[in-house]
Design goal:
Elements (H helix, E strand, L loop, with lengths): L6 H13 L4 H6 L4 H4 L1 E4 L2 E4 L7 H13 L2 H9 L25 H19 L12 E5 L6 H9 L9 E5 L4 H10 L5 E6 L6 H18 L4 H5 E5 L2 H7 L6 E3 L16 H7 L1 H20 L6 H15 L4 E6 L7 H13 L17 E4 L10 H6 L6 E6 L10 H17 L3 H6 L7 H4 L7 E6 L4 H21 L11 H14 L5 H4 L4 H11 L3
Parallel strand pairs: 3-4, 3-5, 5-6, 6-7, 8-9, 8-10, 10-11
Antiparallel strand pairs: 1-2, 2-11
The structure holds 6-O-phosphono-beta-D-fructofuranose.
The site of 6-O-phosphono-beta-D-fructofuranose has 14 residues, from loops.
Length: about 525
């Protein structure tokens, strides 16, 4: 049966038809206990979803949908290691990476290898070709082999290791790597080539540039062993690149790229913040895994976020969702969540191979508050579009300079209240606003949001936060009947880019190029003269 024809979906449809116009002002006025009813705590985290456009009936019907979709059964299948990524024939076991003592032996072996590497680099025992200690680490990777460690290293900047700088290069554009190399010393730089497949074009081009840069200074291939580490599932390819097996950190095809921060892909992060912090990150994620696996549906934080997202997308009609961390340290979280959610659930084909024909993952975007208030919040308040928001705030600052944190938190709470309740004509008149300006000062409100309050931003709470969004993504895939763990949608562009590159290189002529449309051919000939 098509998802939209199921009784649970139909019941939500009927409910939405009568409910969707209700205003948050009225919902709050009607229920004194709304905050208590629609907020949940777990292990120091508080999720307030009382400013979402739901009532008790909506919540009940959403939970019915979760039961009908068998979220609990799919969760069990994932945790049991079943091949739930059916289009690639793979299990989905990123939870096993942070299972602590219960982790599989191969996981524990790689964690031990990572810990030893951190110890060698931090203690100065890892020496470059000129016998100097490492001062800079460069992670070369893209997508899941970049966004996780880059975001987390930025998030935990307050815990940065002294005397070691960690950099991230991802874009094939030389403008990414060239200025960085110009600042670095080849004698004291260690490169981590992070690529699950070790076939990703951007990463391999950057890795070759880095190797040529090193060899130009070192003069001998032997330097590669002291300056290059690979993180990959593809041992043959890492050998071909010339990286010694001892410097290869393994991971497995059952770890999806966008879920791989907890694997050896996290090595750059562990080097940036220290091994003990990396283990705290794993512990925070493990606590969320346990919650996700055991908490009843109505109290389950990841499932709650997923159900709210589905309600906003499919029943209220919101095409985008904003992530607004009131934490400069979390400024890269929106980019990380873009890959996690949009690459996982930005799909229209269900598990049976049928077209879903309903909106699935919203466009995820956002920026750190309070900066966003001075750019795009105008549209959130008065642009006439429904844009659900996730506010994320910290009770305590990670950089406790006097005078900063209180205004930051005040802005966060003010924005979610302003978005929800707006400002009416009566309120404006009572405040003495002239009739001519009144239409411009109206705030319609009714913009839904959730607020997630973390006690602080440390490795443990970051682990909780990221695992929360990972499991939310998983739940949404189950609810939409999607396989969240493949990404066929990235392939066509890669194939076409290969053909276009050969055309630009003059490897075949325009006749072959006629397979391309007139626009592409026009652009090719304009560019071909210059490249
Ligand atoms: O092209 C998309 C993608 O496959 C992502 O899913 C992945 O995270 C990224 O490329 C990098 O892949 P790899 O780690 O194999 O280089």
């Amino acid at each position: 049966m098509k998802l939209t024809e199921t009784p649970a979906w139909q019941a939500l449809n009927a409910h939405a038809a009568t409910f969707s116009r209700r205003h948050l002002r009225d919902l709050f006025a009607a229920d004194d206990g709304r905050f208590t009813r629609f907020s949940r705590s777990f292990d120091g985290l508080l999720l307030d979803f009382s400013k979402q456009r739901i009532d008790a009936e909506t919540h009940r019907l959403l939970l019915d949908l979760a039961a009908a979709a068998d979220v609990a059964g799919w969760r069990w299948k994932m945790l049991a290691g079943e091949i739930i990524n059916h289009t690639e024939g793979r299990a989905v076991r990123h939870v096993a990476l942070r299972a602590g003592d219960a982790a599989p032996p191969e996981v524990r072996a790689v964690l031990a290898q990572m810990a030893a590497c951190c110890d060698r680099v931090h203690s100065g025992g890892w020496r470059g070709y000129s016998d100097e200690r490492i001062s800079d680490v460069v992670n070369i990777g893209i997508g899941g082999s970049d966004l996780g460690p880059r975001m987390a290293a930025r998030a935990l900047a307050a815990a940065q290791q002294p005397d070691l700088r960690v950099h991230f290069v991802s874009n094939v554009d030389a403008a990414d790597i060239a200025p960085l190399l110009a600042r670095l010393n080849p004698r004291t730089t260690l490169f981590i080539i992070a690529s699950k497949t070790f076939t990703t074009q951007e990463t391999l081009i950057n890795a070759r540039t880095a190797r040529a840069w090193l060899l130009a200074a070192a003069g001998s291939e032997e330097a590669v062993a002291r300056h290059f580490i690979a993180i990959s599932t593809a041992r043959e390819q890492t050998r071909q690149f010339g990286i010694a097996d001892a410097n290869v950190f393994e991971f497995w095809d059952w770890v999806g790229g966008r879920f791989s921060l907890w694997s050896a892909i996290g090595l750059s992060l562990a080097l940036a913040v220290g091994w003990s912090r990396f283990t705290e990150l794993l512990a925070g994620a493990r606590a969320m895994d346990e919650h996700f696996a055991t908490a009843p549906a109505a109290d389950n934080l990841p499932l709650t976020l997923a159900l709210l997202s589905l309600w906003n997308t499919d029943f209220l009609g919101a095409p985008t969702a904003a992530v607004l961390p009131y934490s400069q340290s979390l400024e890269l979280l929106p980019s990380y969540l873009q890959q996690l959610e949009m690459e996982s659930n930005g799909k229209q084909t269900d598990r049976a191979g049928e077209s879903l024909a309903i909106p699935t993952n919203p466009v995820v975007w956002g920026a750190a508050g309070s900066n966003g208030q001075h750019s795009f919040y105008q549209l959130l308040h008065q642009g006439g579009r429904l844009i659900p928001c996730d506010f994320i705030a910290l009770s305590d600052s990670d950089f406790p300079l006097p005078g900063h944190h209180r205004p930051l938190l005040a802005n966060c709470l003010a924005q979610s209240a302003a978005l929800a309740f707006g400002q009416t004509a009566e309120e404006l008149r009572a405040a003495g606003v002239s009739e001519s300006l009144l239409p411009y000062k109206l705030f319609p409100g009714n913009q839904p949001s959730s607020t997630l309050l973390l006690p602080r931003l440390d490795a443990y709470s970051l682990g909780q936060l990221l695992a929360l969004y990972e499991h939310k993504t998983f739940c949404l895939g189950v609810l939409w009947h999607i396989n969240s763990f493949d990404q066929w949608g990235v392939e066509l562009g890669k194939t076409l880019a290969g053909r276009i590159e050969r055309l630009l290189a003059g490897e075949y002529n325009n006749d072959n190029g006629k397979a391309f449309d007139a626009s592409t051919q026009g652009l090719l000939s304009a560019l071909g003269k210059k490249i």
